[in-house]
C-alpha cells in the first residue's frame, strides 16, 4: 500500500524534511504490510481464557496537569478554551 506522507503530514500539522518524509513513508508502508498479514480471529470468544479473566481497574480521577499547562500546547486559545476551525455551517 502506498502511503502519502505529504498528505499525512499536512493533516497532522507536522513538517518533515525530504529525507524524513522518505524514511517515514517506508516505515509506514512496512507497518501497513505487517498489519495486512495478521490472521483473522474468530470473534466467538475462543481466545478468552476462563481461568484468567481480565479485571478492569477502578477509574480514579487524578489531577496531573494544570489547565494552563495543557493549554500551552494548543495552537490557538481564547478565554481559556481551545479555538478550532468551524466545520459546520
Automatic annotation (TrEMBL):
One of its GO terms (biological process) is glutaminyl-tRNAGln biosynthesis via transamidation. This is Aspartyl/glutamyl-tRNA(Asn/Gln) amidotransferase subunit C. Its EC number is 6.3.5.-. It catalyses: L-aspartyl-tRNA(Asn) + L-glutamine + ATP + H2O = L-asparaginyl-tRNA(Asn) + L-glutamate + ADP + phosphate + 2 H(+); L-glutamyl-tRNA(Gln) + L-glutamine + ATP + H2O = L-glutaminyl-tRNA(Gln) + L-glutamate + ADP + phosphate + H(+). Heterotrimer of A, B and C subunits. Signal peptide: none annotated. It comes from the Bacteria. GO terms for molecular function: ATP binding; glutaminyl-tRNA synthase (glutamine-hydrolyzing) activity. InterPro entries: Asp/Glu-ADT_sf_sub_c (IPR036113), GatC (IPR003837). Keywords: ATP-binding, Ligase, Nucleotide-binding, Protein biosynthesis. Allows the formation of correctly charged Asn-tRNA(Asn) or Gln-tRNA(Gln) through the transamidation of misacylated Asp-tRNA(Asn) or Glu-tRNA(Gln) in organisms which lack either or both of asparaginyl-tRNA or glutaminyl-tRNA synthetases. The reaction takes place in the presence of glutamine and ATP through an activated phospho-Asp-tRNA(Asn) or phospho-Glu-tRNA(Gln). Pfam families: GatC. The gene is gatC. Belongs to the GatC family. It comes from Fumia xinanensis. The keyword Metal-binding does not apply. Gene3D superfamilies: Glu-tRNAGln amidotransferase C subunit, N-terminal domain.
